[in-house]
Amino acid sequence: MESAADVVKALSVVAAEMASGNITPEEAQAVAAVLEGKRRAVETVELEARIAALEQERSDESAR
Fold this sequence. Notes:
By secondary structure, the chain is mainly alpha-helical.
């Protein structure tokens, strides 16, 4: 999983598995909690990259 979209897809699979009875609601909740942690980590990395790019752009403009 490399993006928030991947996490959404995984959550869809978990929901489908729960709906079909392959996993219990408690198991689905546990997996969803792990996926939420992954989503937050991915989001943090993406935001850090965006902030770094904006800071670099601002630095480049100041140097002109």
